[in-house]
# Entry
Amino acid sequence: MAEDKKTINPVRRQPVEGNKGAKGVGASDKEPANRLKPLATGDKTIPPEGAKMIPIYIMGREYMVPETLTIMKAIEYAGYQYVRGCGCRGGICGACGTFYRFLGDYKLKTGLACQTVAQANMVIVQLPFFPANRPSYNLEKLENSPHEELRRLYPEVFKCVGCGTCTRTCPMDIDVMDYIALMKRGDLKGAAIKSFDCVLCGLCASRCPAQISQFTAAMFVRRLYGKYILIAAEHLKKRVEAVKSGKYEKMLEELTKKSQDELKKLYTEREREPDLAEPGKWMPKETKYL
# Structure
């Protein structure tokens, strides 16, 4: 059976003689074991000279890593290779949703591994996937009104108990409980706008006592809003019609015949909209390309 390359796979680690061993969460300092030397992986994180080393726990096992690394970099430094649970590395894709707590603290915390800085005595586990409710639907052929379609596809939304766990869990600081309440009231526009910053990590759904798949329901609502509620932009409609009519074909043909230097000159000498121009008011002096 082919290896599933969409998991976090450990890589080889080398034992180092004479060092105290890596130990599990809560293990005694007197517990004998062999310390494992971490191998740098990924893009080869190299800590600065004299960097302070701190202990973190990855899936229950202790590793010494340099401070200031993100959780993602720390996991790679400890010898793990990402092939799932790692996407954009910029806090946008939501692939690296992470749960963690600190030794001696009962509070469970959340974050994105690519954005959250590793701290001493962090106990870490990632949640690269959560089996959320993802019903099939066709936006072009809704069986009911948008709100009734939400009720049909996501009935669990209307079982929200208002505990607020989803909001406390969200690494993007979105008021998840509030947009669920807006859905229940039929305010799909409000729910779409309130949930706009969602990165679909799924951490909210993993802790919901009502078993609501908040992030997939929110995606459905944003699609409903864009398709049936948001007023179409007239200027965009006109521009699409102009493109389809072939208005810009001759201009594009002229551009393709120019050399790279000529294109660079056109770009650098182009008339730019002033940074402080009032939205929708500024017009270029040359309007033949509009």
